[in-house]
Amino acid sequence: EFAISVSNVTLTGDDRYAGSKTVAKAITNTYGYSGGYTISYECPWITSIKVVGSDLTFTYTTNNTNATRTSSAITVTATDGTTCTFTVSQEKASYTLSLGTLPQDWTKSGSTYTAFWASGRSYEIPVNVEPSYFGEYTVSENTDWITDAKVEDGKFKFTLADNKSASDRTSGDITISASTGDAVTFKITQP
Fold first, then answer.
1. How far is CA 126 from CA 22, 23, 101, 155, 174, in A?
2. Distance (Å, rounded) from C-alpha 158 to C-alpha 31?
3. Residue 106 near residue 99, CB atoms below 8 Å
4. Are 185 and 173 in contact (CB under 8 A)?
5. How far apart are the first and last CA of the chain?
6. Per-residue pLDDT reduced to its tens digit, 1-33
7. For position 1, what pLDDT does the model report?
8. 157 within 8 A of 151, measured Cβ to Cβ
9. Most CB within 10 Å of its CB: which of 8, 109, 149, 178?
């Protein structure tokens, strides 16, 4: 009896980011079948699957979720109607986040940024991400004198209220996170 099979595919390493991958001799069959195949699938992050001979080429988007994702069943059908199914899994992407060029009169020591002459002003600090990231960000902070904190257009934007005390004050942890869970955490000191 004629049969075809395809092993499940896992995308790791650089394949976590948008691109394409060819799996050579992905489709195996009994009796030396040399006919054509068709592919059917419904998976929003796999943008195309092409069959050339017994090779499969996948085109896919970056996995900006916080976990490995797996496609629904992908069906391979030979011209005689014989079918098999397999899935594609893609590990989550990983990013390194950091803050870019500081505003004038700011300094950095470890993960603490000091904002000299910063009372009652709004700021924008670029968020650097390697490799390039086009997903959403969240900002987590619980300091009442830092307001309007958000990431917009690749910049951390926020306002510092006036420091009316006679001493410096330091914020709690401020965390900027990508949708994958990768983050940068820092504090702001205001004289």
1. 37, 39, 7, 4, 15
2. 67
3. no
4. yes
5. 80
6. 578 899 999 999 999 999 999 999 888 887 777
7. 58
8. yes
9. 178
